[in-house]
């Protein structure tokens, strides 16, 4: 646990499920004040708020589309109006869909890029603008993927968006380091989240994925949330521009693990 996170104000996009939910509840256990951004009207966020409050933190929720500039501006304003300030921005919201590249429509391309890359740009920009205006040495954490490094056929738009997030993170980190604003990136591997539930329910498909992971198992959302808590805390005070691969070794060429090649 990180005592310096107590009472810090954290905004997490796409926080109603999956990695966002795990991060929101982890910051709750750190006794932070968490703003849960969600997209869909039927998102089940009340349980998350209850869990955060039960753990000693505080929470509020706001609907919004991270690909829309006005929604992101409203989200930051909501955090400041509700809890008095903004300390940590976690740009987590993301989408994916499988399409062979020769059939990938411009509509599909734009939809993924708008959420996964433009949404992270907007969240980062608005958070940094607030921090500069208030002379606050805050932290921005972006959520990428091992596919900012590993090519992924049938997911060209997704891989391109995540590659963009990595370079965006590094550029912002360099630009705002003199102001004491840290910008880092988490790139998860295969994680047991709702988006992967159908795939991992198939024992054969699950074994195929596990074969790509040197540590041999599918990661838990809580393991990614632990990375976010560390990056947000003063324990990582000298860390900026990092892409933290939390992937069980997936990016380390697992085919060579037994001396093959």
From TrEMBL:
It holds the Pfam family adh_short_C2. GO terms for molecular function: glucose 1-dehydrogenase [NAD(P)+] activity. The keyword Oxidoreductase applies. Residues 8-189 form the Ketoreductase domain. Its EC number is 1.1.1.47. It catalyses: D-glucose + NADP(+) = D-glucono-1,5-lactone + NADPH + H(+); D-glucose + NAD(+) = D-glucono-1,5-lactone + NADH + H(+). It comes from the Bacteria. Keywords: Oxidoreductase. Belongs to the short-chain dehydrogenases/reductases (SDR) family. Homotetramer. This is glucose 1-dehydrogenase [NAD(P)(+)].
């Amino acid at each position: 646990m990180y005592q310096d996170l107590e009472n810090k104000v954290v905004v997490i996009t796409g926080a109603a499920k999956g990695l966002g939910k795990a991060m929101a509840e982890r910051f709750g256990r750190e006794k932070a004040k968490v703003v849960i951004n969600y997209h869909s009207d039927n998102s089940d966020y009340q349980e998350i708020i209850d869990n955060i409050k039960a753990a000693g933190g505080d929470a509020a929720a706001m609907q919004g589309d991270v690909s829309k500039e006005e929604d992101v501006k409203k989200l930051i304003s909501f955090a400041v109006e509700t809890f008095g300030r903004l300390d940590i921005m976690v740009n987590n919201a993301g989408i994916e869909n499988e399409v062979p590249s020769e059939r990938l429509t411009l509509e599909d391309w734009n939809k993924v890029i708008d959420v996964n890359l433009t949404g992270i740009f907007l969240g980062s920009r608005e958070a940094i603008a607030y921090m500069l205006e208030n002379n606050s040495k805050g932290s921005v954490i972006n959520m990428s993927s091992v596919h900012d490094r590993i090519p992924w056929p049938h997911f060209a738009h997704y891989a391109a968006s995540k590659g963009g997030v990595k370079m965006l993170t590094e550029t912002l980190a360099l630009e705002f380091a003199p102001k004491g604003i840290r910008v880092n990136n988490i790139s998860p591997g295969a994680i047991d989240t709702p988006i992967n539930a159908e795939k991992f329910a198939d024992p054969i498909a699950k074994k195929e994925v596990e074969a790509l992971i040197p540590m041999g198992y599918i990661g838990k959302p809580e393991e990614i949330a632990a990375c976010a808590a560390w990056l947000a805390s003063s324990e990582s005070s000298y860390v900026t521009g990092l892409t933290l691969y939390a992937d069980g070794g997936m990016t380390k060429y697992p085919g060579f693990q037994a001396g093959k090649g």
